[in-house]
Write a structure and sequence with these properties.
By secondary structure, this protein is an alpha+beta fold. Helix content is 30%, strand content 23%. A hairpin with a 5-residue loop joins β20 (508-512) and β21 (518-520).
Length: 1101
């Protein structure tokens, strides 16, 4: 129904057909008179139509139905922090039980080289869900899965599930022994869940890559995605990295001499990229390359935080390394030690590491190592990359003499294993520190691998308690870390401990970690990434794991200012405090910026590194508490309750307007619905038959209170008729929204949850009428009806000197009617040699009304009417730029670090995992390329067989496959918001375009967020029309990371550091991963569902 459409003749308000030639521009005084007339008509119309003052009187008349309660911010924060502490303490207790049990189970385990068929049984989480999938497979079992509301997926609480990385053979002796002793964890997992039914995922991540988790649940549904490539490895998850070792200062040193070329250089680039993925935000890193000189790969002069953006910059920079000259290890190591010794920059201040990637050489660099590292405080790990005949002795000595390890990477298949195995070495000091290192750590927020959403994870390292014997030390304590135990806590569970519906729509809790990253914040909403992940999980070709962590700094979640920088630092330092500040606030829809007063109150969450805060606007320092009865039954049976419920019935919409209720958890068993009419119907039926104890009395009572109060207002609307109004509406904190008349609801698209409604929240922060432009249709579709302008104002309520804003009232203006009023207000009769006003389609002047965000709301030009809602910088860029330069508009550029963008189509790795070298079509068709790969190991060829199951077919159809697999990638986007930032009313200027110019004048409309502009018509001077000025979100490189690295934000690392121990003597000669790569392994080629699965038999280490 075209509720906003009126007959076309209403537009024709032309004074005389020919108009008038303009020679004299209106004076500022004349324009002010026009504007005052417009403002008077608009405000009078809105006051009359909305009845905002009437609603205030209705609230005051019914004070006996509610009380006004105080929000004691300090007490609210303290209580919420205690509740979060108790929740995490419960999880910590479960973690300790699991870690202790795991260590004992491993001690009790007897190593076996072979197992009988009945000695091991486990559920492989990657098995097909079809019943016959496990037939013929040794050691496999199939759980009885059922839908689980807590986990939102299929689970079985009688079993655990096991995930084994794709590049690890599930029948190897090491894996079978680990499967054998970890099976006993199943009973501990189950007992923990029985003790605390709210427990979510419990996981043991092994240093070998095996992950056992409870309850059992399928990793992926292979029936739907038979060709999906699984690159998940628990050792590369943020929680495992954090729990397996103390923070790291890492300098990656790349040999770029002439001998490192071709395939070897490609392997080094990929290896460095994989190494960077083993670092978390607690770590610091830099990458340099050397031959006879040392050069930076990126712009960083020193170690930088290993966050997502810095790692991406380093990975991209590594691809530009070129090889030439000769190797000079002395130069390289000297630079590396200097980087690690810099004191006046932010860093981890714990493990100091040099990672050397080279093809080998004769030099040991002994002198420089003895000069800078006599105390062995810096560990050196060396990697011999590529297949060659160079002597590996010198670089092996470098590692063994400096408490490191030596690895070989002959082919791409050895990269993932060998670039993460160094964590075993860094875990040794933790094992030797024993109880001191048994500290539970809580991660920053990230997306759960099994689709639980945003979670944090508590971690606890699991140590090898067995004794070992060697010729050098005899019998001594084993120094290996077995893995990391983890327990997830959903952010939804934490949010439930921070009450929401008493602190108002613009009040909010937030929490940050020691890096300043938020784990709770209303702007932490990576919905785009979650949606993109669902697309990947449903696509048969997608790679299932390369997931970047969700890291949003508090100063990026909000609009930064100096006081917030101070608040952030005090929170990281664990202080208690409170500050009231004047701050800019971005609206929910990210189109506008307002200025508001907020009081920030914060305190630490004991037992963790987190800090919790509450931000409250002045008008939310108190709230309304409904008093309809002692309990819900009494409230519902009261005269008020019965009457209010009656007004919410669907058959009363004609009388009381279409009624929406906010989708809140009013009762335990009441299911939320996207269809609000259905939800209202369900609510009405549910309330009548549900026991009072099953519902939230406070929420239901406030909803019923507001239903009754707003019904009185709608009855007043019934008694009056106002021209030019398409709809009237009222919305409340309690969750009621009424739209009158009922038919207008067909065009009502605002959020039914007032706490999430952009216009509602924005209106509360202003004392004036807020005119909101409709969202502009950028897709070129014909609008269903003519757009309407939403006008809203907060209802002020003062009781005993306490001011509240419990509701918002408003109207939807008919644009055609407003245009009539708009042009009539500027009409000047009997004009001769002057502009006669804003005539319809005047060839000489453009008249427009913009809102405070720079969006077009009205114009005298028909061609602009279809652009209503568009940012004016795209309509008339020259004028908009001048309005910014004359300070009518200020602007603020913000970045969204939670966005997703289309991938770069020219990327070589577009269809494969970004960290693996993927040959281009040209490569595959090149005889030279095949010749160069002839020397690659069988292992590497099989890895490619894994990633490209049908290599020859890929040559023919790769373009199609790549396009099919092109999903959006996480990225940064930028957006610029414009706003009024001063009290000046009048503006004027000249747009000088060289051979022509345009004059303009502007005047703000008092008590609104509007500005009126009159200017020489755009068509009269087109010689300096620049590119459109964009306001909408668009892909961006973000702020310069090189500049950010020079002035890093404050952060605080863990209090404890376990980086050295006098008894730490790692067995050095060669890693077990390197042995696997360099010695001819026993290879198993298993064909399953059209896929190649690579495996390698290995013995105990």
């Amino acid at each position: 129904m075209d509720t906003c459409r009126v007959p076309a003749w209403v537009f024709l308000v032309l004074v005389w057909q020919g108009g008038c030639l303009a020679s004299q521009f209106p004076t500022q005084l004349m324009i002010k008179e026009w504007v005052d007339q417009m403002q008077k008509e608009l405000v009078t119309l809105a006051d009359t139509a909305t009845g905002g003052m009437s609603l205030t009187q209705i609230f005051l008349r019914n004070q006996h139905l509610y009380s006004v309660e105080q929000n004691d911010a300090e007490e609210l924060v303290a209580r919420a922090a205690r509740n979060i502490e108790q929740l995490l303490r419960k999880r910590s207790a479960a973690l300790k039980k699991l870690a202790a049990a795991a260590e004992q189970f491993q001690v009790d385990h007897t190593w076996k080289d072979e197992f009988e068929d009945d000695e091991i049984s486990y559920y492989n989480s990657k098995d097909n869900l079809d019943a016959n999938e496990t037939e013929g497979k040794k050691y496999r079992l199939r759980p009885d899965f059922k839908e689980d509301a807590s986990f939102r997926r299929l689970t079985d609480h009688n079993h655990t599930a096991v995930h084994i990385p794709t590049d690890i053979y599930d029948g190897s002796t090491i894996v079978l022994n680990e499967l054998n002793w970890t099976e006993a964890l199943e009973d501990v997992f189950r007992k923990n869940r029985e003790d605390d039914p709210t427990l979510l995922w419990q996981v043991f991540g092994s240093a070998t890559g095996l992950a056992r988790y409870f309850p059992a649940s399928p990793w992926m549904d292979a029936r739907k995605t038979p060709s999906k490539i699984d690159l998940y490895d628990v050792r590369r998850r943020p929680w495992y990295i954090q729990g397996a070792a103390s923070p790291k200062d890492m300098l990656i040193l790349v040999d770029a001499s002439g001998s490192v070329s071709g395939l070897t250089l490609k392997l080094i680039r990929t290896s460095v990229s994989e190494m960077l993925e083993t670092l978390s935000d607690d770590d610091y890193v830099n990458v340099v390359y050397f031959n006879t000189r040392v050069k930076k790969t990126a712009c960083f002069d020193h170690l930088v935080q290993a966050n997502v953006r810095n790692k991406k910059l380093l990975k991209d920079a590594v691809q530009n390394i070129t090889a030439k000259g000769i190797t000079n290890y002395t130069k390289g190591f000297e630079f590396a030690f200097e980087q690690l010794s810099v004191k006046n920059v932010s860093r981890a201040n714990c493990n100091k590491i040099i990672m050397l990637f080279t093809d080998g050489g004769e030099e040991r660099a002994q002198a420089i190592l003895e000069k800078y590292n006599a105390d062995k405080k810096v560990r050196i790990f060396t990697f011999s990359v590529g297949q060659h005949n160079y002597d590996k002795g010198p670089i092996q000595w470098m590692a063994c003499s400096n408490k490191g390890y030596f690895y070989e990477i002959p082919s791409i298949g050895a990269i993932r294993i060998n670039t993460q195995e160094y964590l075993d070495v860094l875990g040794r000091p933790m094992v030797l520190a024993d109880k001191q290192a048994k500290q539970i750590q809580w991660t920053n927020v990230y997306l759960d691998a099994l689709e639980l959403g945003l979670v944090i994870t508590g971690t606890l390292p699991v140590f090898n308690r067995t004794m070992t014997v060697d010729e050098r030390h005899g019998e001594h304590q084993n120094q290996l870390i077995l893995g990391v135990m983890g327990i997830d806590v959903s952010l939804d569970d934490i949010k439930k401990l921070t009450p929401r519906f008493t602190i108002g729509p613009n009040g909010y809790y937030f929490a940050i970690d020691p890096n300043g990253y938020v784990l709770l914040h209303p702007n932490l909403q990576p919905k785009k990434r979650i949606g993109n992940r669902k697309l990947r999980l449903n696509d048969k070709y997608a790679v299932t794991f390369h997931e970047e962590p969700v890291t949003l700094d508090l100063l990026d979640a909000e609009l930064e200012n100096d006081i917030k920088v101070e608040i952030r630092k005090m929170m990281i330092d664990g202080e208690i405090g409170e500050r009231t500040i004047d701050t800019l606030v971005k609206t929910q829809d990210e189109r506008y910026i307002d200025r508001g007063i907020r009081t920030y109150t914060w305190a630490p969450v004991n037992g963790t590194d987190y800090s919790l805060a509450l931000a409250l606007p002045k008008y939310s320092e108190h709230f309304i508490q409904a008093k309809l009865g002692e309990d819900m039954k009494e409230a519902m049976s009261s005269t008020w309750g019965q009457g209010a419920m009656e007004t919410m019935q669907l058959d009363r919409f004609d009388e009381f307007g279409h009624t929406y209720i906010a989708p809140r958890e009013y009762c335990k068993e009441l299911k939320l619905s996207l269809n609000n009419t259905q939800f209202l119907l369900d609510f009405n039926q549910f309330i009548e038959r549900t026991p009072p104890e099953a519902c939230n009395v406070s929420l239901v009572s406030r909803l019923i209170l507001d239903a009754g109060l707003t019904a009185e207002l709608v009855q007043l609307w019934n008694e009056q008729s106002v021209d030019g109004i398409v709809a009237r509406f009222v919305a409340t904190d309690g969750g009621i929204t009424r739209v009158y008349p009922r038919s207008a609801a067909e065009e009502w698209s605002e959020n039914h949850e007032t706490y999430e409604s952009s216009f509602y929240k924005r209106t509360l922060d202003n004392e004036i009428y807020i005119f909101t432009a409709p969202a502009f249709n950028t897709e070129g579709r014909e609008p269903v009806s003519e757009p309407c302008i939403l006008v809203s104002k907060a209802v002020d309520l003062t009781i005993d000197k306490v001011t509240l804003k419990p509701a918002v009232v408003g109207v939807k203006l008919n644009i055609s009617f407003w245009m009539n009023s708009f042009m009539n207000a500027t009409l000047k009769l009997n004009c001769k040699d002057e502009i006669c006003g804003c005539l319809k389609n005047d060839k000489h002047v453009d008249c427009v009304i913009l809102d405070d965000g720079g969006f077009l709301l009205m114009s005298n030009q028909d061609e602009y009417i279809s652009l209503i809602g568009q940012f004016f910088g795209e309509v008339d860029p020259v004028l908009m730029i001048n309005l910014v330069n004359t300070s009518l508009y200020s602007f603020n550029k913000t970045y969204d670090y939670q966005s997703v963008c289309d991938p770069e189509k020219d990327s070589k790795a577009a269809a494969g995992p970004r960290s693996v070298y993927v040959p281009t079509i040209a490569d595959l068709l090149s005889v030279g390329w095949w010749a160069s790969t002839a020397a690659w190991s069988i292992l590497q060829q099989l890895i490619y067989g894994l990633i490209f199951p049908n290599l020859l077919e890929a040559v023919e159809s790769a373009e199609e496959e790549i396009s099919d697999a092109m999903f959006k990638e996480s990225c940064i986007t930028e957006q610029t918001q414009y706003f009024f930032d001063n009290d000046e009313r009048s503006y004027s200027g000249v747009l000088d375009c060289g051979n022509c110019s345009r004059m303009y004048r502007g005047e703000k409309l008092p008590n609104t967020n509007l500005v009126f502009l009159i200017t020489d018509a755009k068509a009269t001077c087109l010689s300096c029309d620049p590119r459109p000025l964009r306001q909408a979100e668009q892909p961006s490189e973000g702020p310069d990371p090189c500049e950010l690295a020079q002035n890093p934000r404050y952060r605080k690392g863990p209090d404890a550091c376990f980086d050295n121990n006098e008894n730490d003597e790692p067995l050095c000669p060669i890693s077990r991963g390197s042995a696997l790569s360099s010695a001819p392994p026993v290879l198993f080629l298993l064909l399953s569902s059209g896929r190649m699965i690579l495996s390698a038999e290995e013995g105990p280490a």
